[in-house]
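[step 3/7] fold_predict: job queued, chain A
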Amino acid sequence: MADVFPEGFLWGGATAANQCEGGYLEGGKGLSVPDVMTAGSVSEPRHVTDGVLPGRNYPSHEAVDMYHHYLDDIALFAEMGFKCYRTSINWARIFPHGDEAEPNREGIEFYRRVFSACKAAGIEPLVTLSHYELPLGLARDYGGWANRELIDLFCHYATTVMRAYKGLVRYWLTFNEINCLLMGAFGNIMGGGILPPGQDVAMDLSSGCDWDVPQRRFDALHHQFLASAKTVRAAHEIDPENKVGCMIAAQVVYPYSCDPDDVLLAQRMERTANFYCGDVQVRGSYPAWAESVWSQQHVHVDVSDEDAWTLEAGTVDFYSFSYYMSSTASCDPKVATSGNVFSAARNPHLEQSDWGWAIDPKGLTYYLEEVYDRYRIPLFVVENGLGAVDEVEPDGSIHDTYRIDYLRSHVEAMAAAIADGVDLMGYTPWGCIDLVSASTGEMRKRYGFIHVDKDNDGKGTLARSRKDSFFWYKKLIESNGSEL
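[step 4/7] structure written:
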């Protein structure tokens, strides 16, 4: 792999504030949507409650307490040789309700300390402005992103932090996995801040969403497109050095068979999942087939002339995405569906993780080449990793060879795409330190190079320790990807 990865390639890792930060009411922070989401598991869904209820386990409240451990954690990232650390700002730490005129100064100063520590360690912050962290006040009082008023509220928040951290942060992402709004329960709650009616409602990813109103989700997505476009323009005005990217949950979908119906279904699924959002944010307009998507969903998206101009004028500088798995599509009702968040037929040619996610590094090569051929702007893999159960040995060591194998194969997949001409900026594997799972609320599902002593019940010392993958990744970065 010598000389495959370009000089200046941004090796690093990724987290999100609601999954690692904790300190949920410290420093003037308000409640965010994840703060009223209980812990779950692979078999039990998370619940959204009407406020914080006594006796329930809300994992975001402490998470892995990076709020108090960020200096130690950044030092560990620096020890690995990180060039980049992707994290997010919790909107409710800056504007506790989401709609205040003036920011919470304690929140501003907290992130200033975090980003300054990164820069002092030679690490570029890559900051996501909205990573499933909508202030609860905007969800409860405004109806989440289905309300057009959130566009200006988001832009006020975004420009406030961009001005505050000018010179400290120059890589930004607007909305994490923006295309998740095309999904039901997860898209409504995590992506759109559109909460279910009543109290204690399950966010069940496997059984659909009987309270879903597609019109609200498509309106919410349109509003996020507009907020993103306005933020891109503002970012460039605030600091010409700023680079702003979109962030897509990559979905590679293969036809289950060579039946033409399977091929066409896979094409439609992949096109809608990946390019509906990508085209708007990169090309500046909805794709030609958007009308057919709206018709199938029985929705109408009102794109005014002003909206069209805003989208065209606010295209992103780079395209980032998460990649964990591929799936397959079949029109045969007898083909079983299982495993993935995006339910689809199981691929018999691929192994699966403990959580039923297909392990497919070649799918990453495929996706990189397809997306780069379509958009021809720099790409960035900002999430990728293996959620697994780690065994701590009596001496405290963790021999996570399965994680090393997974990551190595995906780094090789990136190298293959770069060799084919793809312009790839960097790689920040997900959960570089163990954190709370967004989909299940678990700690048991671990991704990190760094182990955190905490269990699903919230018990543990929060002590950090290095897994075998820590030392493997350190060596990989030192060699710029040549020593796999």
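[step 5/7] annotate
The first strand starts at residue 10 and ends at 14.
The radius of gyration is 21 Å.
exit 0
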